[in-house]
Amino acid sequence: MTTTGRNIGSLVLFFIFGAEIFSAFTFLGAPSWSYTKGVPSLYILSYLTLGVLVWWLMAPSIAKDGRKKGFLTQAEYLSDRYPSKILALVIGLVSLGAMIPYLTIQISGAGLLFQSATGGEIPFWVGALAATAVVTIYVFVSGLNGIGWTNLMQGLMMVVIAWYLGLSVTDHYFGGVGAMFEQLKERAPEYLTMPGAENMGWGSYSTAILVSTLGIIMWPHIFMKFYSADSTRTLKRVFVFYPLYGYILIPILFIGFTGVLLFEGQPLENADEVLLKIVVGEGLFPPWVIGIVLSGALAAAMSTAANLAHASATILARDIIYRLPVGSGMSDSQLLILTKLGVIVVALSAYALAVSKPASLVALLLGAYGIIVQLFPMLVGALWWKQASTKAAVIGLVVGSVLTLTFQLSDLNVPWGFDPGFFGLIINAMIFIVISKIGTPPTVAKVGSALPE
User: Fold this and answer.
1) Residues contacting residue 447 through CB under 8 Å, at least 6 positions apart
2) Backbone phi, then psi, for 266, in 5-degree steps?
3) pTM (predicted TM-score)
């Protein structure tokens, strides 16, 4: 059972997929969402389950063709169906624009963990810089050798830590999970009703689920892992059991609800610190337990950061620079060197975004999903619609991405309270369909095809 190449078995692949999704966000972002918004935080469990259905429908075809043609990146797959240097370059830019905020989440999480573990002796910016340096050196020197088994150990550690923390915290302060929810119902019932404490309306809530459900297959580092499975059976076996990973989040969300009651009347300045304030700052656990907890959370952040940094650097080298005149004609050895240098560029970019503290970790993740989901219409066309055209794919992607970023970076209100990424996706899909319908049918065959059982 190997952890590199294209022959990864079910067990290791299961934990690799888990590590790609569950990271610093699990211990810091998820509890901050239940702490600030209440039950709308359950959108996370919804999309993690629904996203598996999308994987089941699409991933086998992606994996088959990726292995057959030797693709390394997502842009290589899509540009094989839509032959255009401009499109491949745009896909690379969009992918990188989503991946850097995702990497920022890991670096921000590591910075918060260092700050909390040292009682503020190591400030956030120093902790984040240390995490950036470690990830950069690790990926620069060794690539991702052995990352699969590392993710396996990380996954097991996360499950144990999450349930221990969730049950211990609620038992200590309230006598159990049920008693905690009873007090929440009496003292802060708005956290147990929709649209939630911070008025996350139905439009925002439902479209956040849809954006994340459709966007989860479009992450370039996930796409690359589809190529790695040793068979269709392996992929489907992983997908069947993958929702079990959601059980990690349940006790973590309990901690966020606990924070609602503990810090009632004195809200935290940074909601992403709610778990750290309870676990480290309240004196509930002995130092050795706190050490294990922080180590587990830090391992989750660093492991995922290594995957993201490597994938982002590969995109920068192969899908962006290689497509430009300055990079055309590069040899494989030159691309490898460029990829290693790209790790430094990507990591420093994520660090710069982290120290600027643009938003909460969940908001940052949702924003990244809104960008990457714009690739979804062209993937559907590549798999199942022969009439889908390259021109339509380019225009739809550009318009959808620009609209999404415009709403995300401005104070404009999205119509009907929709998630910005979903509104951009609707316009993107409409443009993609209309232009493909009125244009000349392409002569290229679709990329994917159904895998035999």
Assistant:
1) 61, 65, 77, 78, 80, 81, 382, 383
2) -135, 70
3) 0.85
